[in-house]
Amino acid sequence: MKKLLLLVCCALALPLSILAQEAPTTVVEKYADRTINGVIIAGAFDVQLAQADGASRKVGAKVEVQQELADKLVFEYTDEGYVRLSFKNDVSKYFTGSKKKPQAWITVSELKYLNVTGASSVVCTGICSTEGDLRILTSGTASVNLLEASAGTLHVEASGTSNVSDAKLTVAGEAVAEVSGTSKLSGTVKCGDVKFVVSGVSSVTLAGEAAKAEVEMSGTGSADLEHFAVGEMTAKVSGMGKVKANVTAGGTAEVSTMGSFRYTGAGLVTGKGVKRLD
User: Fold this and answer.
1) Any keyword Signal (predicted)?
2) Domain ranges of the chain
3) In CATH, what number does 24-125 get?
4) Please, are residues 124 and 144 in contact by the beta-carbon 8 Å criterion?
5) Of all helices (H) and strands (E), which one includes residue 109?
């Protein structure tokens, strides 16, 4: 009887031990001799992003992927100077449950473009910068976290259920943020003029400041800008959208019957449906 129990226990333990073994991986490194100005990530990758500093951080890209997927990996350098990561086929079955996603480490020369789609996530280290335009695009369930960057101008587009979280962005000129679906944008932004286009059930939660702000709100979206100081504000709120603002000079707002616009600050915002919080 004891032998039978021992055999049963061993039989049960064997599949668990097989599952516990991690699939062998291979590491591919490229583009240390190139100028990398942007990153395109599609599929399912966990990415660490940084900008070269000339000392400890050198330009280049490295990917760790399961050996059985190495021949399906797309790891290329585009004409625009971007590193692109994806797979030739749908390999999502390899990353279900607790299975580890492919890991990537990318160090750019400067950051002009960041496009993250699918189920990929990007975590940023240090400050990334460009004197020109910085474009950030997310879709699917993708995420960009802890991005600290400076740029001449900024354009953010978040859709699906993606999110750009805990960002710290300094922009010399104009910034535009478009969020839709159930996507989210949060962090701190300092810029000249800014435009927010919020639709669906998406949300924007920001601190920081801007000289002028324009808000276009629709659906059941929300914009929490109570800690985002704005000189002049113009807003159009339709559907059941909600806006909280901090206005230091003045502005106007058009608010639908089901929508809301609430504000604090020394400024005066006029329009039907506008209410002061303090």
Assistant:
1) yes
2) 24-125, 130-278
3) 2.160.20.120
4) yes
5) none
